[in-house]
Amino acid sequence: MKITYSQKQSARIKNFFFYSLFIVLIFSSVFKAYRKSFDLYVSVEQLLLTPRLQKEKLYLAGLVLEGSLNSSENKVEFEIYDNTPSHHKISAIFYGSPPRLLKENQEVLVYGEYEPNTQIFQIEKIASKHDEYYRVKKS
Fold first, then answer.
1. Do 119 and 54 fall into the same domain?
2. Is 13 helix (H, G, I), strand (E, B) or coil?
3. The dihedral formed by the CA atoms of 40, 44, 49 and 53, expressed in degrees to the nearest 10
4. What residue numbers bound the domain in which 67 lies?
5. Is residue 86 part of a domain?
6. Is 61 among the domain residues?
7. Judgement on whether residues 33 and 58 belong to the same structural domain of the protein
8. If you average pLDDT over every residue of the chain, what do you get?
9. 18-44 residue pLDDT tens
10. What is the pTM of this model?
């Protein structure tokens, strides 16, 4: 059986589309994995004013509101606010042992997800700021 020119051409076209589809699938899966490695850092104001951010896990930066820090055995609740003229604030809950340096009016960086229905930021990771100098306590 002799292969004609049009059969060769149609086989080449099929191969081209098959390999193109294969390359596109690999590229898209790599891109999705790469995109998940990017973490968003936002302020309280940005989170509250941008609804699409409310559906993603992200880092939230702000200050712990004075008088809002309540901690029990394995749960810490507090409010995070922006030091901007708008003074937006978000309630936050962390399950676990908080850092020793977590105090009111201190900067805090939390990782988690905002739940618009309950208006609470569920924290998975928490970090509080400390000064850059280490001082040995004198006994």
1. yes
2. helix
3. 30
4. 41-128
5. yes
6. yes
7. no
8. 84
9. 889 889 888 888 777 666 556 678 889
10. 0.66
